[in-house]
Design a protein that fits this description.
Helix content is 40%, strand content 15%. It is α/β, with parallel strands linked by helices and 389 residues long. The protein binds glyoxylic acid.
Length: 389
């Protein structure tokens, strides 16, 4: 009846066939079979008791993952960036100061977000293939006295991991809170929120947790909760952690509606957490360390150089590899996909044109996967050799 009113004709949506590649970029990686199964559970209202139980399981699992006894632990509806928005906008207000330690693209994103909130930003920038010295940070924090310091634990744009032990204590000594991005390090690199004095932390599901993107673990320390209670500004409604805490029943007896959570993503995150809990964190960390050590050996046997010079700075989830002169990074990535159906990524942000980014994490963190990538890279090096002449 309304057919003649439609100004846009029906588009054609064709079925698309493809063979799933092995996902070996910096994320997303492949998902656990249990997570695929969880994603197909019946969609109930997130206001049903069944989903409230799932939310409680998620909070308990995240306390284990972050290693925190804090009650303010939940998952934000959105990708890792939503965690970044939440952590920054709940702690630092307009005209307050944040110090951002910049070495990769995510720190620059934190800088851009902070500016949009009217926060005063200060930057401590180092070379992309390096990590921060706590002594240097202390000198800067002592002078600037920021409300918070932002730092990325594992950086997928550079393939480096930042040492965090001692940083929380250092920040607290000068009245600053410590905010940390663990998007590509959680459930892969050791992380101890309470012991390290981390005050605000977020992650995502499509990396070490081997789940789908779209729901982001987050936690705030008790120290951060005190700051939140006293703040004289309001964060964006969608990211307001006080409203979210009431929805997630963080402090008991509150199931206040805030926004509609995605039941499939809740089930999926719960399954990711079950996988880690069943294996245990120490075993998960050891598996990632062993697999990546093996992969690095294979890379060195191919006479390829790792972008991060110091072994202790190399991230277990994402390896950055420098190709010999004459090879083209995009061509290499395309050949790996077309010939071997393995998806790896070129550089991003400061590493564009400088490295390949290869992710081995979560369910993919096995010697077989590491060998499959290294074998395909060996073939690709030979196949594309003429372009290097
Ligand atoms: C995304 O997280 C990326 O590192 O490309």
């Amino acid at each position: 009846m309304y057919e003649e009113k439609l100004i846009v004709p029906r588009p054609t949506i064709v079925d698309r066939q493809f063979t799933k590649p092995l996902l070996c970029g910096p994320g997303p990686c492949d998902i656990w079979p249990s997570v695929a199964e969880a994603l197909s559970k019946p969609v109930l209202s997130p206001l049903c008791d069944e989903l409230f139980d799932v939310m409680d399981d998620i909070r308990a699992g995240l306390q284990y993952l972050f290693q925190t006894k804090s009650k303010l632990v939940l998952a934000i509806s959105g990708s890792g960036h939503s965690g970044m928005e939440t952590v920054i906008s709940n702690i630092v207000g307009p005209n307050e100061t944040i110090l951002i330690c910049c070495r990769g693209i995510w720190d620059d994103r934190a800088l851009e977000m902070s500016k949009r909130y009217g926060i005063k930003t200060k930057v401590h920038r180092i070379l992309f293939n390096n990590t921060f010295s706590l002594t240097l940070i202390e000198g800067i924090v002592k002078i600037l006295r920021p409300k918070a310091l932002f730092i990325t634990h594992g950086d997928s744009s550079t393939g480096s991991v930042q040492k965090l032990e001692g940083l929380g204590k250092l920040c607290h000594k000068y009245g600053a809170l410590l905010l940390v991005d663990t998007v590509v390090s959680l459930a892969s690199e050791p992380f101890f929120m309470d012991e390290w004095g981390v005050d605000g932390v977020y992650s995502s599901t499509q990396k070490g947790l081997s789940g789908p993107a779209g729901i982001s673990p987050i936690a705030f320390s008790e120290r951060a909760q005190e700051v939140i209670k006293k703040r004289n500004f309001k964060p964006p409604f969608y990211f307001d952690i006080e409203l979210l805490a009431a929805q997630w029943n963080c402090f008991g007896n509150t199931r206040q509606y805030h926004h509609t959570l995605s039941p499939p993503l809740l089930w999926a995150l719960r399954s990711c957490l079950k996988e880690v809990i069943n294996e245990t964190l120490p075993k998960v960390w050891a598996r990632h360390a062993e697999t990546t050590a093996h992969f690095h050996k294979r890379i060195e046997q191919l006479s390829l150089e790792l972008l991060i010079p110091k072994p202790e700075d190399r991230l277990v989830t994402v390896t950055t590899v420098v190709l010999p002169k004459g090879y083209d990074y995009m061509e290499f990535v395309k050949y790996m996909r077309n010939k071997h159906n393995i998806l790896i990524f070129p550089g991003l942000g400061p590493t564009v044109g400088k490295a390949l980014r290869i992710g081995i994490m979560g369910v993919n963190s096995t010697i077989q996967v590491a060998d499959a990538i290294a074998d395909a890279m060996a073939d690709t090096l030979i196949a594309l050799k003429k372009s290097s002449l």
